[in-house]
Specification:
EC number: 3.2.1.8
Order of helices and strands: HHHEHEHHEEEHEHEHHHEHEEHEHEHH
Protein name: Beta-xylanase
Keywords: Carbohydrate metabolism, Glycosidase, Hydrolase, Polysaccharide degradation, Signal, Xylan degradation
CATH class: Alpha Beta
Largest sheet: 10 strands, parallel
GO molecular function, one term: endo-1,4-beta-xylanase activity
Number of domains: 1
GO biological process, one term: xylan catabolic process
Length: 412
């Protein structure tokens, strides 16, 4: 089971959680306090968590304590908003097991402890990451690259020892180590992340198999060439055996746009989901990262059809990493124009998901915009990809999300 983290972090987080609970209790019993709280711009009268709870949706966000330093304001915000907490990086293989048999649990510990301290549930993101997030020993031997004819160097390493004989034992051992440390505490586990091909101007068509998968290190080691779409199945079965209470999902990005490669990827994903359900794979839902892009065409009708098809399979939808990228919008636009555009897109997308699928979880890739990777990569634009600004004030995107969830028309 998990070892206690440093006392100062536990005490800070617990104090923040207690303060948030006491504040909410005072607001519920004291009309004057409630009115004052509603008037403060950084504390909405109706939180997105409240709206999600009413719609039977878990609301949460990602956080990484080693990237984001001690931040009591952020702790308080997450205590007020989150029923689930995702480790942005702490649950990735390269972070918590950089060398075989050597574990560094600090970042995952911090995420699990944060969730516990605020009365939320932790997620585990992610076990398999087909393209990234793997330490050198969990890559293919570099000498196999010419033999396999795969031009992507990221799948190979001079230290790589991943292969048919090592892939299943290592996966099973890592799952067992996480289970031993934390128990069956995770609300959601991303068993596989970004295993389908991502088409770009620099991508190589020979990296994609006929089922749409990347011919990456996991695909090679687990026999994707021979087993077809079933190469992923054993990993879900092993994870379910260790974590019977977790929601197991396959997590993907890049299916929302009205562009050919995203429409094809959406079809490949749906084909795999349909086959997995028929084969009895223990999968509870699909994780949609939902990194939306303003200024590009959102395929609203295509996404509605996809969501309805997922629902017919009996699978839930988990929005796992939501944000909205504004970097394609004209630089001449005002901050207000950009915020309205981001809010419109976020509201449309969320309305489609809540009304055409069984949405069980809405997680933002950080609640505060300044902590999101888009803000870090485009600091000159000072973008606002998340529902709160750097001062923990709700943005128009926040209100759009609240309205989309509150206007849910789908029963159940």
């Amino acid at each position: 089971m998990i070892k206690p983290p440093l006392p100062h972090r536990r005490d800070v987080l617990r104090a923040a959680a207690c303060a948030a609970v006491l504040a909410s209790c005072r607001a519920a019993t004291d009309p004057t306090t409630a009115i004052a709280a509603a008037a403060r711009p950084n504390e909405p009268a109706v939180t997105l968590r409240d709206a999600c709870r009413a719609a039977r949706i878990r609301h949460g966000a990602a956080r990484d304590h080693f990237i984001d330093p001690e931040d009591p304001m952020l702790d308080r915000l997450m205590a007020r908003e989150c029923d689930v907490v995702t480790p942005e990086n702490g649950g990735k293989w390269a972070i918590f097991q950089p060398q075989e048999g050597r574990f560094d649990w600090r970042r995952l510990d911090a995420s699990v402890e944060l969730a516990r301290s605020i009365g939320a549930a932790p997620n585990w993101h992610t076990i398999i990451w087909q393209h990234m997030g793997m330490p050198p020993y969990m890559k293919l031997p570099v000498e196999r690259q010419a033999e396999l004819g795969i031009p992507e160097n990221a799948y190979f390493s001079a230290e790589g020892t991943l292969g048919p004989d090592t892939v299943q034992p290592r996966f099973a051992d890592t799952v067992a180590q996480v289970k031993e440390r934390y128990g069956d505490v995770f609300y959601r586990i991303d068993v596989a992340n970004e295993v389908f091909f991502w088409e770009t101007a620099d991508s190589h068509p020979q990296e994609q198999d006929r089922y749409g998968f990347r011919r990456g290190m996991w695909w090679v080691a687990a026999g994707g060439a021979e087993r077809g779409p079933e190469w992923l199945d054993p990993f879900f079965h092993q994870t379910r055996a260790a974590f019977p209470n977790a929601k197991l999902v396959i997590n993907e990005f890049g299916i929302e746009l009205n562009e050919g490669w995203q429409q094809r990827k959406r079809a490949y994903l749906l084909d795999w989901l349909s086959g997995a359900v028929k084969r009895g794979v223990p999968i509870d839902g699909v994780g949609l990262q939902s990194h939306l892009i303003a200024g590009k065409p959102y395929d609203r009708e295509g996404m509605r059809k996809f969501l309805r098809a997922v629902d017919r399979l009996g699978l839930a939808v988990h929005i796992t990493e939501m944000d909205v990228d504004e970097t394609r919008l004209p630089r001449s636009w005002s901050r207000e124009e950009k915020d309205r555009t981001l809010a419109l897109l976020a509201g449309q997308y969320l309305a489609d998901v809540v009304n055409h699928s069984r949405l069980e979880e809405l997680v933002w890739w950080h609640l505060r915009s300044d902590l999101n990777f888009i803000a870090r990569e485009h600091a000159d634009l000072d973008p606002q990809p998340s529902p709160y600004d750097r001062n923990s004030r709700p943005l128009p995107m926040y209100e759009a999300a609240v309205q989309a969830v509150r206007n849910k028309t789908r029963a159940g």
